[in-house]
Amino acid sequence: MAFVAMALRPALNADWLPPQRLPLMVAVLRRFFAVVIASIAALLVTGVPLLLQVPGNQAPSGWHAMAGIGVLMMLLFGHLFFAPWKRLQRAVAAQDWPEGGKRLNQIALLVKINLGLGWLAIAAVLLWR
Fold this sequence. Notes:
Blueprint: H1 2-15, H2 18-52, H3 61-82, H4 84-93, H5 97-127
């Protein structure tokens, strides 16, 4: 998320016109979102059984916070994937560059929020024992 939000997108905004920038971002995000979906699956398959090994009232508070933030992050990604991402793909296919730019900005904001939530989850589990 950090690479897309803080490196790739700002670099493309400098000199690239929407007809070049938006199709490239769609191609990058298609691959990125495939990795995100695989990561969510891996987190659920490995993390949930680990959390269930400890009775809820004995688990550190940071674990509960991390799990809650993780669920929020997954819900936010679900919204991102099924709303602005689908709209971005349609806009680029139709060469509607203003709409595509609007959706890409929306995706960038949601990715930054999820990045911040990820750091918050890490901090919770490390600092709230």
